[in-house]
From TrEMBL:
Active site (UniProt): H279, D337
Keyword annotations: Transferase, Tricarboxylic acid cycle
Alphabetized CDD domains for the sequence: EcCS_like
GO CC terms in record: cytoplasm
Pathway in which the depicted protein is active: Carbohydrate metabolism; tricarboxylic acid cycle; isocitrate from oxaloacetate: step 1/2
Family, as annotated: Belongs to the citrate synthase family.
GO biological process: tricarboxylic acid cycle
Gene3D superfamilies the UniProt entry points to: 2.20.28.60, Citrate Synthase, domain 1 (1.10.580.10), Cytochrome P450-Terp, domain 2 (1.10.230.10)
Pfam families: Citrate_synt
Designated name of the protein: Citrate synthase
InterPro entries noted in UniProt: Citrate_synth-like_lrg_a-sub, Citrate_synth-like_sm_a-sub, Citrate_synthase, Citrate_synthase_AS, Citrate_synthase_bac-typ, Citrate_synthase_sf, Citrate_synthase_typ-I
PANTHER family: CITRATE SYNTHASE
């Protein structure tokens, strides 16, 4: 037992909560999650209704401004975002400075951080107009940045945004169009892409969003804060999970290997975990996983990938894990990443693009939370305390006496 009053002379109320499992870092009106019920609401609207009836840019508006837009408001918002999709031409040189085989996430962290060097006129956070422009620029330019990071990694020329296409269709166009061939975006794939964006748009105070808030609590500019969020998202326990999940499904290979992997996941001496299973907040089905599962069926159907072995393995793994008391007792259910990787791969994305796509989808969440924080009169610099377990004061020992 540590007597905190002996450790710190100024000890008042002191909580020790590694991983923030029961400490709120802020108040917010954006997203509500009831993990036990498996409920996710944006500004009060259930995620399955938004994924089914709305589309990404409308959800962006909702997250940013708190209400669903009227038809006129939506038109103005969509055309504003569309007008900002181009990147400054000088940024092409910046992309070219990266190693040819750089991971697209490494490129995104660098390029988004560097936006503060290219767009000075929207870095003054004390000016509401500049804040607004920065948020539009981030949402609009992120698909271009992610697509160009991809194009660079495969050695193809950059494809410029097309403002006659929807947000999702334009992203697919920038990723998959090549100069020598005509590329027409399939509306079903554009819809599936839009749904992936929508399902990842915000998720209250997850690690990357908390990173954005903490970075911005010092007054850092929005591009630097979002770059910090992207860096955090890169980790396999967060945004990297769908890549890790798909790799795991491929490693499992066929349904007959599943029992071996389930046994490994349960073995405390084996660090292996079932990727795409479990969530810090959801102790029930992740509502996003249910929508994602339907989308996986639709996309694979469209692409004629009948009897897709990875999807078959995923479905069987889900079935066997949910029949196992280890997973049900620990409340480990499939999360959003369990099926998203299968869809993205079927669309033609390499695994290295999975996390960049998550980052571009989550940008609106980061930006909405950042704006909310700046408008909060209680906003102050984030400065967690620590529980110090090191040596107490002692005297310096000269090197010859050590
Ligand atoms: N497979 C096997 N066992 C697991 C798994 C899993 N995927 N997840 C948790 N457990 C076990 C742990 O071993 C632990 O067991 P114990 O109580 O016997 O020690 C118990 O369940 C609780 O695990 P914690 O790590 O303490 O739970 P936490 O809430 O901190 O972790 C996390 C949540 C990181 C998501 C975890 O479930 C995990 O690593 N899952 C796999 C990675 C993944 O899919 N991440 C995506 C998250 S969703 C997103 O970022 C969009």
């Amino acid at each position: 037992v540590i007597d905190i009053r002996k450790l710190y002379s100024d000890a008042g109320v002191f909580t020790y909560d590694p991983g923030f499992t029961s400490t709120a870092s802020c108040d917010s009106t954006i997203t509500f999650i009831d993990g036990a019920k498996g409920e996710l609401l944006h500004r009060g609207y259930p995620i399955d209704q938004l994924a089914g009836k709305s589309h990404y840019l409308e959800v962006c508006y909702l997250l940013l401004y708190g209400e669903l837009p009227s038809a006129e408001q939506l038109e103005i918002f969509e055309s504003t975002i569309t007008r900002h999709t181009m990147l400054h031409e000088q940024m092409v040189n910046f992309f070219r400075g990266f190693r040819r085989d750089a991971h697209p996430m490494a490129v995104m962290v660098g390029v988004v951080g560097a936006m503060s060097a290219f767009y000075h006129d929207s870095t003054d956070i004390s000016d509401p107009y500049q804040r607004e422009v920065a948020s539009h620029r981030l949402i609009a330019k992120m698909p271009t940045i992610a697509a160009w990071a991809y194009k660079y990694s495969v050695g193809q020329p950059f494809v410029y945004p097309r403002n006659d296409l929807s947000y999702a269709a334009n992203f697919l166009h920038m990723c998959f169009a090549v100069p020598a061939e005509e590329y027409v975006v399939d509306p079903i794939l554009a819809r599936a892409m839009d749904r992936i964006f929508t399902l990842h748009a915000d998720h209250e105070q997850n690690a990357s969003t908390s990173t954005v808030r903490l970075a911005s609590s010092s007054g850092a500019n929005p591009f630097a804060c979002v770059a910090a969020g992207i860096a955090c998202l890169w980790g396999p326990a967060h945004g990297g999970a769908n890549q890790a999940c798909l790799e795991m499904l491929k490693e499992i290979g066929t349904p007959d290997q599943i029992p071996e992997y389930i046994a490994r996941a349960k073995d405390k001496n084996d660090p292996f975990r079932l990727m795409g299973f479990g969530h810090r907040v959801y102790k029930n089905f992740d509502p996003r996983a249910t929508v994602m599962k339907q989308s996986a069926d639709e996309v694979l159907d469209l692409l004629g990938v009948e009897n897709n072995p990875i999807l078959a393995t995923a479905k069987e793994l889900e079935k066997q894990a949910l029949a196992d008391p280890y997973f049900t007792e620990k409340k480990l259910f499939p999360n959003v990443d369990f099926y998203s990787g299968i869809i993205l791969e079927a669309m033609g994305f390499p695994t290295s693009m999975f996390t960049p796509i998550f980052a571009l989808s989550r940008t609106v969440g980061w930006v909405s939370q950042w704006k909310e924080m700046l408008n909060d009169p209680q906003n102050k610099i984030g400065r967690p305390r620590q529980l110090y377990l090191g040596n107490t004061q002692r005297d310096y020992v000269d090197i010859e006496n050590r």
